[in-house]
Design a protein that fits this description.
By secondary structure, the chain is of the alpha+beta class. The chain is globular and about 50 Å long. Helix 1 crosses helix 8. It is built from 9 helices and 4 strands. It is 55% helix and 8% strand. Strand 1, helix 1 and strand 2 form a beta-alpha-beta unit. A 4-stranded mixed beta sheet has the order 2-1-3-4, with helices on one face.
């Protein structure tokens, strides 16, 4: 049995969408990361890294979005969550890695500069640079959608689920998304997918995202 540990509206949304789109049977457990539940002894006993997402697979624990997404795609080949040809699959994997190690980090710097330093006088500068980098990264995603309607062309892939994380965060942060029409159209297509709508409803962000794409 698969069990996903996720934080509502955290980056684990990418893995949550992947599982729901896959058709695999799984259970989910919400972890209140804003209340520090991921640091509890009970959670650390299962997931020593104290992070979300985590996917429990018959007693084994897998962490990191990209690894979980890769597992889900391999476990549910009929869902076709990755491109079929090797080069396109490698490009998709490259984008997933960039989402994880660059786009995510820029948003973290914008919203939580204190993770870099306890020096309060530095926080405003770090947050400003993080916002600049995050908006730049959103523009890069916008450019990737030029060949749309999906990030890898004419078919939904794991990349689209991960990109939804950043649209969700941008709308939560109140950023002006009007200069990003392709990204907004992409989010509108995403919430029309039954699996995505179910996940966003569970995580409590569907109404906000629906408002942001209008």
């Amino acid at each position: 049995m698969l069990r996903l540990y996720y934080g509502p509206n955290a980056c684990s949304l990418a893995s949550h969408i992947a599982l729901e789109e896959s058709g695999l049977a799984y259970e989910r457990t919400a972890i209140s990361i804003f209340d520090g539940e991921q640091k509890s002894s009970a959670y650390l006993a299962r997931v020593p890294t104290g992070k979300v997402p985590a996917l429990e697979i018959d007693g084994h624990v897998l962490t990191e979005n990209v690894a979980i997404q890769a597992y889900v795609a391999a476990a549910a080949p009929s869902a076709r969550l990755m491109p079929d040809d090797p080069l396109s699959a490698a490009v998709a994997l490259s984008r997933l890695a960039w989402f994880s190690n660059s786009v995510h980090i820029s948003f973290r710097h914008m919203m939580r500069p204190m993770v870099l330093t306890a020096e309060e006088t530095a926080h405003a500068g770090i947050a400003a640079r993080g916002k600049e980098d995050f908006l730049h990264n959103l523009r890069r995603i916008e450019a990737m959608l030029e060949g749309g309607p999906w990030l890898m062309g004419d078919r939904f892939t794991l990349c689209d689920g991960y990109a939804m994380v950043f649209f969700n965060w941008a709308s939560f942060a109140g950023l002006d998304l009007s200069p990003l029409p392709a990204l907004r159209r992409h989010a509108a297509r995403m919430i029309e997918r039954p699996a995505v709508a179910r996940v966003l409803t569970i995580e409590g962000s569907l109404d906000r995202i629906a408002e942001a794409v209008r």
